[in-house]
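Troubleshooting log. The previous structure file for this entry was overwritten by mistake, so regenerating from the original sequence record. Sequence copied from the archived sheet and checked twice against the printout by T.R.
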Amino acid sequence: MGNEIIIGERLRQARLNKNISIDELQQKTKIQKRYLEAIEKGNFEALPGTYYVRSFIRQYASAVGENGNFLVDVYDGKDSFEPESKRAKPETVQGSRKALHEENPRAKKTRDYLPVVLLGVIAFMIVGVIAYVAWQDRNSDPVIGQTASSIEVDGSVTTEQEQSSEQASTETSQTTTSSSEEEQMEVAMEDSTQSQATIRVTNAEDPLELEVTGEDGRCWVGVSVNGDYAIQETLEPGQSESTTLPEGTENFVMTLGASGNVGVKVNDEEVDFDDPDYEALQKDLNFEVTYQD
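Regenerated output below.
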């Protein structure tokens, strides 16, 4: 903590650089004007709680082109506006100057003899390969000694192999056609951390339907598409909210507060974002969507 004023001033300056008024910013972020003014003054105590401080910083930063995650890390004391400088460690020279001068001529002599040694090894390898090839030629069977019966057997084997290959190709084609007809939407979580995860949705039907439900306790849900919020609600247990995303939406972000109390469905398919390695707190789900042809 302690960087509230710097964070607020940085966000305010970014807003002024983009010629955005407080009222316009309120329309973009859906955050009350008094909270936006408190953020710019560094008066984070006026906000409802620490969770909302982090969430509002990210929303404000996204609207004015700042890095919200970095500013939250600065607020939490995990990062700083001034990078730490690292001193270069002096190299340690072992041995006396006399010893170093004595070793240099020895190393020079080794480098002088190295090309000669390499040429000798290469010449030895070439002679060995020539000898091996000559020995193989002397011990190989003549091609003319092949009998007619063996030729006929080889021919029959080739025919059977061709038939097996054609059959396998037909079965593979049928399997591919069948699988393409049965393609269904798949939802999978990738690259999960404490604060965010990537959710990949494939073979989806356009447009995409979202549904969020409060489960065991109170939670907060925000769904952002291209900087605009489609959902921004605090849900009680059993309360649900749904929305239809614009057609062709390929990326959107879902911010969850108390994520363990939120159920998410995409086109009636449940999204499993639970990660046993981390506690279910605030989490950003970055959705990447591909649709059926």
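The chain has seven helices and ten strands. Archived copy saved in two places this time.
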